[in-house]
């Protein structure tokens, strides 16, 4: 690891040394390059959430099923995710180490729970990378028909096939950037986030200027929910997925703990800032878009979504400029997703908790990144895209499966943490972020929220998992089946094969620690 140079950087060097000491206490030698500051960690969290990517990718979905009143799912999801984020802040301060969800669940629930959470999150990351890459298709062809390479967009499979092509190109780019080192990744990511934040604020102002109706529009449910057993509530729960799909990934700020300066203090702040900023700016974009849309009953609203509103309300030229900013946001979002997945895979491989762990955890002497793990994540994400190349419902299915697995992984952190709190075994990091007496009630709410949204995400809705005919039971239950196979199958593999090999790899272990700390056996 390259140390921070002496001289003016003395305080940063001291903080780096302190965090290296915290890392060795967990049984690991420092190996990754610690260069990232406050904005870098904040940018990692907010680019994963990616206000512009999520709102532009999923606005059409929310409006299609819940109408304008679907907007209320945005603050609902924020409050639930805030409870989770507050728990994560304590964990980020207590364990400033790569692979946040995996290491948190391991220390709170034991090696078995940790492996399952890490496995679910690793698979979810690869599926998420594919899902984010699909967002290119929803934006680039609306900028120019040149980007509709396959067909003219009117064929049944044109959009899905073209989405795979554009997505594969994006994944190739993010894989190369992540392989070439954290500094290049952080530079591109921070620059992209800076542009995204400026564009998002400008979009709020521009849409605000073009408002044509009052706020009463977002409390009208119209005819949505007719024919459903739960009425509008059923429609709202379906539409709420559009918000649930956006506000996650804030833990990425702590996944870079071994490459950040003073992560025990910076990561909790970055997590909260990323979530709150995304809620405020994203909420205003959605609200003003609904109030500025030329016609809330226009078919384009539930087909082209926010892209239609931007071009219709702001004019073609300004609309195209905004859409190019969305393309930048999608790019850095995909970059951040792969970055987080890479750190997670590295953390698991370092504990020899993945097949081929020795090779996956190997850090390139030149780039100081685990290059093989980076390439593996990129290849699997492209394979996921190719498998779905002729699936018209590729957008909702791939996105839904990715998000539900992340919610499950989050539950495998907050639930063991709650058990530790109730047993009186949880201790926060001295002088760092702490919920104090609010710890237990916040943690309970985080668990209840996570469980409720997991059920909502997994519910076998034809609208989500089998949106186009023909109807098949295995497609409607696709979320449950996929998550079940990955979870149960993965854990059986761990129990009968992998757990016997678990233990910090010699090249990453601190030699003078007691055996139980240096090796995390079954």
Automatic annotation (TrEMBL):
It is a multi-pass membrane protein. The chain crosses the membrane at residues 39-60, 72-93, 113-139, 159-181, 193-211, 231-250, 271-293, 313-346, 367-388, 394-419, 440-459, 474-496. It comes from the Bacteria. Its main location: membrane. GO terms for cellular component: membrane. InterPro entries: AA/rel_permease1. The keyword Nucleotide-binding does not apply. Keywords: Membrane, Transmembrane, Transmembrane helix, Transport. It is found in: Membrane. One of its GO terms (molecular function) is transmembrane transporter activity. It holds the Pfam family AA_permease_2. PANTHER family: AMINO-ACID PERMEASE BAT1, OS04G0435100 PROTEIN. This is Putative amino acid permease YhdG. It comes from Streptomyces hundungensis. The gene is yhdG_1.
